[in-house]
Amino acid sequence: MAGQPKVTDSFWRRYMDVVRDEVIPYQWEALNDRIEGAAKSHAIENIRIAAGEAEGEFHGFVFQDSDVAKWLEAVAYSLAADPNPELEKTSDKLIELLGRAQQEDGYLNTYFTVKEPNARWTNLRDQHELYCAGHMIEAAVAYYEATGKRTLLDIMCRFADYIDSVFGEQEGKIKGYDGHQKIELALVKLYEVTGNKKYLNLSQFFIEERGKEPHFFDRESEARGDTKPFWYFSSYKYSQSHLPVREQKEAVGHSVRAMYMYAAMADLAEKLGDDSLKEACKRLWENVTNKQMYITAGVGSSEFGEAFSFDYDLPNDLSYTETCASIGLVFWARRMLNLEANSSYADVMERALYNGTISGMDLDGKKFFYVNPLEVWPDACSRHDKRHVKPVRQKWFNCACCPPNLARLISSIGQYIYTERNDGIFVNLYMGNEAEFDVKGRKVTITQKTEYPWDGTVSISVSPEEPTEFLIALRIPGWCRKAQLKVNGENVAIENTVNGYVYLNRTWSENDYIDLILDMPIERIKAHPRVRENAGKTALQRGPVVYCLEEVDNGTNLPNIFLPKSTRLEAHFDSELLGGIVVIEAEASRLEDSEWGPALYKPAEETFKPHRLSAIPYFAWCNRDPGEMLVWVNEK
Amino acid sequence: MAGQPKVTDSFWRRYMDVVRDEVIPYQWEALNDRIEGAAKSHAIENIRIAAGEAEGEFHGFVFQDSDVAKWLEAVAYSLAADPNPELEKTSDKLIELLGRAQQEDGYLNTYFTVKEPNARWTNLRDQHELYCAGHMIEAAVAYYEATGKRTLLDIMCRFADYIDSVFGEQEGKIKGYDGHQKIELALVKLYEVTGNKKYLNLSQFFIEERGKEPHFFDRESEARGDTKPFWYFSSYKYSQSHLPVREQKEAVGHSVRAMYMYAAMADLAEKLGDDSLKEACKRLWENVTNKQMYITAGVGSSEFGEAFSFDYDLPNDLSYTETCASIGLVFWARRMLNLEANSSYADVMERALYNGTISGMDLDGKKFFYVNPLEVWPDACSRHDKRHVKPVRQKWFNCACCPPNLARLISSIGQYIYTERNDGIFVNLYMGNEAEFDVKGRKVTITQKTEYPWDGTVSISVSPEEPTEFLIALRIPGWCRKAQLKVNGENVAIENTVNGYVYLNRTWSENDYIDLILDMPIERIKAHPRVRENAGKTALQRGPVVYCLEEVDNGTNLPNIFLPKSTRLEAHFDSELLGGIVVIEAEASRLEDSEWGPALYKPAEETFKPHRLSAIPYFAWCNRDPGEMLVWVNEK
Hints:
homodimer, 7-stranded antiparallel beta sheet, 23 strands
């Protein structure tokens, strides 16, 4: 692809604008500690201190540098979409500062440089050293691709070269890996942009080494003289290092770590043509998406360890479902698509993009959820076991991973639309965009126009510079039960899809056009009967968008609303509401409590009264008066 | 009453036998560290060390003495019911040992005597010093009443006298109280048995002082130079000392502490004729029983702090519902009945006795639950937020409060049947027993025969030594919607009940008899619509017994069982099952998963297949193959 597609989509363009106008500037202020009342970041100051240009102590988490990296990465994507000389100048200056903070040998990490200069590489398990490097490598790659400027890329190549001299199979090198996966994925990107296979090999080394016995974290902790057991049940499941990656069959442990690792595994399986690694990825994918994923594409059922729990354990009110974990799921799905054109990966990717990722940010880009539960009773957030569930989005977090992670995802949303292959182009997502491809040596321009996700009509134009035979494969979304397809106005049958894609293999000429109409009725979704939490409940979905009830529309005590099975559901677009959304309404009924009396328990016939149910997209919840929220609605 | 009623009831007599034959002997071995594999108690050894008769260190909790006290109290009740010279000899020896462990000034507490002799009364908030004294006073009173032996009573009077010299309003005394209420209730008992009003006054002092500002725990912690905040949210709600007791309107904090305090308040309100204290008790009663109590009469919705949470927050799978808290609720209800003859207190007492208390012990008296949840999915007990929920009863606990507490409750069950008043006798509970009363100076013998709780027919004989006019008031249970009453074979109308009691005011003669037939159909109970957890669900109850589904009868995934609203429920007595219980059966349906396929979510019509639902009494769950359990069943 010649650069990333230019996103013109009204849904995503609005989010990109918010990231550009709100999130990126706000985060820059936050990183510089200029936001009154917000938790101190100190991230930029840490770099100044490391560069010897300021006095003071390191402050923040060991992974404070990664906030800067994620910000830079988001800036890069944003600059690619919307040039902004002032922002670019600010970033260039930051990059120069990073250069001055880099040590002689290429090392770059403000925590260790400032605070523990002699403790480099002594506690990979806990200290996020390679994790931070990974984020900065991703920023460097993105910045280079957006601006053509090599400064940060060179800095990070030097650091990666140094890392390569420290870690590896060879005598005298550390046979280890990071407690928080990230560098594995970043090194593949660095390999792709530099062509230097050393980086791919190093990524492979980290992945292959993981979970081998004798366990690196044991050897490392012994070398430190550390006698305390590791906090997380003393189990390496937390960091997916309990087994060699090829032997892992179920998603366990910290969900963000897991997502980043699985994404890297998919990358390596593709680049190395490694079938057994591909099988491991597919097994883990089946486990996550068929047994451990919420309908919003949230993952991580357990607050303890911010982790996966076990198959079919999907409590709606206790979930962790971190924004970053859904983002990680998008990264992974994107790479599974590279590995294999199968729309089930795109289905999950789309589910995450329209639900569990963007729910992490308010519509104005000013407040964020770390945790994205499927049922919120604000009063219950005072319970100790639900204290991680916040009833309203927060301005900034001490551990500020999610906001910049969302910023970089949204700014780079165009990267998820297409997969390029030698034989043509796969269309994974439908959103307004213009993209240029190089197909069989010829320039091909593809544009999409659509009001997705509110309307399933997509107009695609395909313009090669001269008539060329190639493949356009269009995904028929898993949620779509009926679709119509026309090429240049003529109906094309779509009985035969290949792994969920319609293959249009033909000679394309300038101004060819495709019309795809995806039926988008409201669906009542049921969860697998083994998800006990949802027995007798239904979730509303329309297209890729999962719906929820909010107190502001439906009053208090949402579990008392029952949706009769026979009720007709109506959808209408409300341009005034929440930036323009499709609302779902239905005649439902509500369990009455006004005549119940004080008794807590009694043999009683329930009394219902009619209730006009109003549901809004899950991602848009908590943008009006705060209150209860519920995805899985009682049916009767 | 001349001693406690002799319980002949087949239901309770079996439990009393189990306590006598299993629990008391087992606990004695445990207290003496003679159970292989069990957590070390060291409780008796602590006393030996305190008495100077053994060498060693104190071991266990600061409240380890209370385990001994509760055991002695249970022994006392058991001896009253079933004389046992050998057990009495063992106890007498223990009491002598306690006497030798008592200090010159009357002080008796092995933790402080052995471990911190100079720290007496410096940390009432955390160290359970008066709590232990309270339990030992209760044991002393019970032992004296059972055996007529004064040794332990004298020991504890000396200790109470000493405590009275340390605590009080007067200059130089500590104006404080214990972090764990218990002594307040014990001192009332000591007053009743000794007639010494000093003890009543001291109890009143502790209750009145609680929650006053400047706060005693602040003053105390300042005196200790303690700078750390108190763990429990730094809130004195944990120990109900956040407000003076008369100003408390909602049950908060540690539920066992709360129950013991409310019970003491009810005692004091009665003995002192204190109306505002009575009002406070009634307010708290309304709050607990109408807003914070499970259908099993479990209380404490939150594991954190073993505590109440807030109104209508009654999650079935996260509850704490400690056995001891339900026992405490029985103590409180019993005292509310003394304060006011109102069957609603007896209804709750009965609910606790047949459900949330005895569920804490298996039928053999060998294993115990600390936590009594209403829904158990054993797999989910591995979740960090549900780790307090044990899927099977445990042999013994480190913190062994519940087993001996149950032992003393069951051994003294007869004390809960009647309330004596000057004008007659109130029958609160129906169970087989023989009791002697002194009514208006005359001996009256009352016997009950019944197969309660399985059958609602109760035969009561009333035999005064000579014809006497007095009141017999019979409780019509809240669960009973139709009752028949005959006196000497003649129908008596029961339209007019006074606060739930039928008043039979007449001249009773030898061999008069009452037949009471309480209709006991199976009821489908609904929870108040504000209990969101139970929307769309029903609980089965028959008489006072709440039912549950178990995996062993119903297969896995109990939330997938739906009970149609129209289904007929059938009850039958199964003498072979679980010691003889009434089983409830019904034609229900079960959500099918065999044809669902792998997808986690899809638009699907649910498939149901017929399921023969089988429910057993909640108290009897987990006495066969371990597995899932569920009280609130989905309805459709």
